[in-house]
Every structure is written in structure tokens, then in C-alpha cells.
């Protein structure tokens, strides 16, 4: 039986293999053809994140980072030299970068304006340049105007940690401008993705543009985009993975369309190619109380349509409100073992990241991005890897 050496201690597979004939840096080999799940960590880039690549590499079994070029506005083509520099920086730290999160979709595309064709051409050019440097998956979303929302960025929990929280009534009583000002005051020096000043300066105009838009019109605009880019995704071997709306509730009158199993099915059916796939985010789809996340994984994963996964837990306070908990099942409302088992049973071979985490051990003093501290996400990654190993051993 031939053994294949792992470059780093990156993956737990179905069978534990005793190293022979040499060692990888952390001492594991993989059997050829075994189940592969790549654990990754979101890193916002140089000058955008106080967590270092060296710290990420020290997390056991971490294969690489998921990153982006946050300063490039939606609709513009990414410069090849910027992509090359990003790739060299990550590779130089001993990590992979195979997933980009995100290449944002310009509002003209979502609104179906005549100017969308130019923006789509730039998107395809970006895809071509990313493929040249080994990018295999692009996570993106179709959320109108705002990518996500929380009422509290640093909500204090009884154990002394703090986390992001969503309280529907609190959001309802704020304007987008008021919520943006709250984020700016709390997040310090960082611009939050989806809440950039450039995006927000036209927010009233954009809100008016979406007013009265019918669901079918929005889906038609999505299909136009997919029909344009998916043939190129197939040619470039880049998996496109749409992220569900976060949270799965209407905010500021904006449509929320990818919020349930039926919505995901409708989106995937817009283009039958397996390159039109899903970022299965447990914390987004799972924020709709009663959602059966393991069943969704078995359905869409069984079809090979889940390319990337954000795996986190949350704790419901009522039908609409929740806070983001630690990853283990007893800490929240989602069954993390059942979720990981569904991935394992459907032969998941994509990328997973532990997604959001709490701020613990006084980490908020280190100027971390809300929801993106080092320690709790590292704990979450090792917890998920432990479940994966246990499933593999039977």
C-alpha cells in the first residue's frame, strides 16, 4: 500500500496512519484516496488583521487561509500584481490560499442595470487572474446593499467573554446610517466588510432602487450573472460558492432571498452546473429557527453542490434573536456533531472554516475584528477536527 506524505499536519482522514519512511512537519501521512476536508482560517490580509499568518499556522491541522483584497471596490478588476503578492505572502508563511472570500458583486448586477455587463466582464477578468495563482473557489453573496447585520458587536456573556448578537427589535429601531455609525464606533480602525463608507454614502439611493423589486426580478438578475460567469468558472476550474443571507430576516426593507432550503434549491437550479454551488454557512441558514442543517448538507452535499462551509454555533434567545456561541454543541442551539457527520457521510472534499468566534482571554484588547478573534476560532477548528477524526475512526 502506497503512502502519500502530507505537506503539513492538515487533514484528519478516515484512517489514522502511522508515519513511516519520514515525517511531515507535524508527523502525519495520508492514505491515497481517503476523505479530505481542508480546515482553513479567515485572514483579512496585511494591514487588515492583527492576527499573523504565523499564529494561524500554529493551529493544529490548519491547511491555509481564506482571504480577499478588501480595498478593491466591487465591480473593479483585481490587479494581477496584487493577487501575486497576496499569494506569495501566504505561501511564504507555509500556508495555502485556495479560497477567496469574497469577490463582491456590484449592485448594478443585482439590480439588473444596463451597466452590469461591464461589471461582469471585470468579474470574469478577476476570475482568470485568480485561477492563474491557484485559486480554486470563490465565496460570494447576492445580499442587496449590506452583507450582514448584528445589533451588538461585543455582547457580554456571563463567563466574561463577548460575542456578536442579533436582536431584531433593536435593529428595527435604527436607520442604516445609525447602525453604521454604531459599527464604526465599536470596530475601531477597521472598516467592516459590507459596511464600507464608500458603499454607505449611496445607501439611500440604493434602498430606493430596491424598493418594490419583486422576488422573481431579483432571481432573474441572479440568473443573468450565473449564465455569464459559470462557463468561465468551468473553463478555469473555479468553484463558485454563494453565501446565504445573514441573518435570514428582512432588514431595512431589503429583500432576503437565500435564507432556507427552498431558496437554496431555487438558486442552484438557476444554473445546473456543479460549478454553481453553495457556501453552507451553519450560522446563517441555522439562524432561521427550525432549519434542518444536517438535512440540507445531505441534500446539497450529496449532489456535490457544497464547495465551502462556514461552521459555527449560535444560541437562540427567542424566535428571532440569537448570539454567537462557542462551537461545541452544548454551548449553542445547533447540533455540531450531526452537522459534521452529514459532511463526513456525504464525502465532503471542500474547505471548512470555523467562522465567527467569541472574544476570550481579554483578546478584545488586541484590536481584533468583531467575531474574528484568534483563540475561540482556533478552539473551534480543533473541536471540528476532533469530530472529523472520531467519525473517520468509526
Explain this structure.
The structure is a single chain. The chain folds into two domains: 1-34, no CATH class; 39-393, Divalent-metal-dependent TIM barrel enzymes (TIM Barrel). Helices cover 36% and strands 15% of the residues. It is built from 14 helices and 14 strands. The strands form three sheets. The protein has an eight-stranded parallel barrel with strand order 3-4-5-6-9-10-11-14, surrounded by four helices. β9 (239-243), α10 and β10 form a beta-alpha-beta unit. α13 (336-345) crosses α14 (375-393). Residues 1-34 have low confidence and may be disordered.
What attributes does this structure have?
4-stranded antiparallel sheet, 36% helix, disordered N terminus, TIM Barrel, 8-stranded parallel barrel, globular, 2 domains, alpha/beta, single chain, 14 helices, 394 residues, 14 strands
Number of domains: 2
Q: Round the Cα radius of gyration to an integer and report it.
A: 20 Å
How far apart are the termini?
Answer: 21 Å
- Give average pLDDT, whole number: 88
Low-confidence spans: 1-34
* Helix share bin: 25-40%
> What would CATH call the homologous superfamily of the largest domain?
Divalent-metal-dependent TIM barrel enzymes
Give the strand tally.
14
Question: Which CATH class of the largest domain?
Answer: Alpha Beta
Strand residue content? 15-25%
What's the CATH topology name of the largest domain? TIM Barrel
Structural class: alpha/beta
Write the H/E string, N to C.
EEEHEHEHHEEEHHHHHEHEHHEEEHEH
Q: Please tell me what the overall shape is.
A: globular
Question: Main beta sheet, described?
Answer: 8 strands, parallel, barrel
The number of helical elements comes to: 14
CATH architecture of the largest domain: Alpha-Beta Barrel
Strand order of the largest sheet: 3-4-5-6-9-10-11-14
